[in-house]
């Protein structure tokens, strides 16, 4: 019996390597990059305002993954990332719209307020994309509470659009589950 090939998702990952907890955040980004690359996901990420999720990109590329960077005009990738495809879009809204049009799922990693804001702006733009957040150290607990208290009673099927994961493997499994639910 031949099973149909699963298509792997294009995952827009919102992450930042700036702020408190940098070493742990870098390690977490590296783990996400490795796991997602090994699963065959195509990773799309933002680089703007001087913030580049280098650990995510480096780990994904080292594991053989496909990564594309959407950047503002001020971003220069480090020499070690010279082979990473980069698309420069000067306008922030244009970058977020491109992410929404290209990705099949939005993923939020614990990080800075800027990365969480970009995730929310992309989702709120009417893209209808599912969102999965890695709730490490309760980073997205306020959003989880909002989803449970408000969205659950006002948005039918909200659980097929917003998920929270406790670890990286769970994050991947939720992405796969959401993809299956949306077919």
Descriptive terms for the model:
disordered N terminus; alpha/beta; seven-stranded parallel β-sheet; 6 helices; Rossmann fold; 183 residues; 17% strand
Principal-axis shape: globular
**Could you estimate the helical fraction of the residues in percent?**
40-55%
Measured between the Cα atoms of the first and last residue, the distance is: 22 Å
Q: Low-confidence segments, ≥5 residues, pLDDT <50?
A: 1-5
The number of distinct β-strands equals: 7
Can you identify the CATH class? Alpha Beta
Mean pLDDT: 86
Structural class computed from helices and strand pairing = alpha/beta
CATH architecture field: 3-Layer(aba) Sandwich
Task: Give an account of the 3D structure.
With 183 residues, the chain is α/β, with parallel strands linked by helices. The protein has a single domain, classed as Rossmann fold. 42% of the residues lie in helices and 17% in strands. The protein is built from 6 helices and 7 strands. The protein has helices at 22-38, 54-62, 92-102, 113-124, 141-154, 168-181; strands at 10-14, 42-47, 66-71, 86-88, 105-108, 131-134, 162-165. The chain has a 7-stranded parallel beta sheet, sandwiched between helices. Strand 6, helix 5 and strand 7 form a beta-alpha-beta unit. The longest helix is centred in the N-terminal third of the chain and has 17 residues, at 22-38. The two termini are 22 Å apart.
Give the gist of this structure.
By secondary structure, the protein is of the alpha/beta class.
Topology (elements, then pairings):
Layout: E1 10-14, H1 22-38, E2 42-47, H2 54-62, E3 66-71, E4 86-88, H3 92-102, E5 105-108, H4 113-124, E6 131-134, H5 141-154, E7 162-165, H6 168-181
Parallel strand pairs: 1-2, 1-5, 2-3, 3-4, 5-6, 6-7
Helix pairs in contact: 1-2, 3-4
């Amino acid at each position: 019996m031949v099973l149909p090939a699963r298509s792997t998702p294009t995952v827009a990952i919102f992450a930042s390597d700036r702020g408190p907890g940098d070493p742990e955040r870098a390690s977490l980004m590296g783990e996400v990059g490795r796991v997602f690359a090994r699963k065959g996901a195509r990773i799309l990420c933002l680089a703007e305002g001087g913030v580049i999720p280098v650990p995510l990109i480096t780990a994904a590329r080292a594991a053989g993954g496909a990564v594309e960077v959407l950047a503002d005009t001020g971003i220069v990738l480090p020499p070690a990332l010279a082979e990473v495809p980069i698309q420069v879009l000067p306008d922030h809204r244009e970058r977020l719209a491109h992410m929404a049009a290209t990705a099949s799922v939005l993923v939020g990693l614990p990080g800075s307020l800027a990365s969480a804001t970009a995730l929310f702006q992309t989702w709120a733009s009417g893209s209808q994309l599912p969102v999965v957040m890695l709730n490490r150290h309760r980073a997205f607990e306020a959003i989880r509470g909002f989803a449970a208290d408000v969205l659950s009673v006002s948005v039918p099927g909200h659980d097929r659009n917003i998920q929270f994961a406790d670890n990286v493997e769970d994050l991947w499994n939720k992405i796969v589950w959401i993809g299956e639910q949306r077919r």
